Here is the input.
Amino acid sequence: MTPPSDPDSTNPVAQSSSYIPADRDTEFLQRDELRPLRIGIELLKPELIQREQGIQSTIVVFGSARLQEPAAAKRALDFAEEEAARSPNDPTPQQKAAVARRQLALSTYYEVAREFGRLVSSTCQVDGRCDYVIVTGGGPGVMEAANRGAADVNAKSIGLNITLPHEQHPNPYISPELSFQFRYFAIRKMHFLIRAKALVAFPGGFGTLDELFETLTLLQTGKTENVMVILVGRDFWERLINWQWLVENGLIAQQDLQLFHYAETAREAWDLIARHNGVSSS
Here is the structure.
């Protein structure tokens, strides 16, 4: 017996793109005029999922996507030094080797970030609670390390990736049900801070600085409150940013320097956050 055919399959009217229900018409949803709708649902989807997953509060961890764990950084240095040895008069491989040596030194922060994710998650995600859940930008480097630390103790962690012109993939340590991808930086930034109790910034580049200074500005202007900012690696941050010079030139107030704190280890960072929020750090 021949099954009945779909009457719409031969009906030219039903084949028109205008006949597709608006919520299923992906091409229509990409139109410029639909930007407000896209922004709204991009804000709402992660919010609803985090509620369903019981996420009460978070700690944002930022840092360079380019920092590798020490073993990988050592392999990269060995390769760079071999290349430099083969071309002793070529400044390019010499420069690459110098950068690789600095990257190896900075790779210790990968381990600090991993330990931080492990420490916080094992302390706060007990008896079904989802407090102080690690949230990162979802990429490699320091972000991977913090998600990895949570995974080490079988705890949840969040990754907020974003579509970029070049390929970007979520690191494999994010909880799959809490791995999000954003189109708009602004909405992604909102989700970083909606539940945040702290922002922990490790050495990083433009992206890390962007998130750090946006958070400091929101705290300075009173647009957000009770988010503790911790800079891991005092020597790095004080060499990068001359905070006192900003004060001396009247560009920020002396009390603005109290908007952030320094830490060197995972334990120091977590103890600062715990004391600030009145919770047990162990």
Notes: Strands lie at 58-62, 133-136, 157-162, 179-182, 196-201, 228-232, 260-263. Residues 70-104 form one domain. The first strand starts at residue 58 and ends at 62. The chain has eleven helices and seven strands.
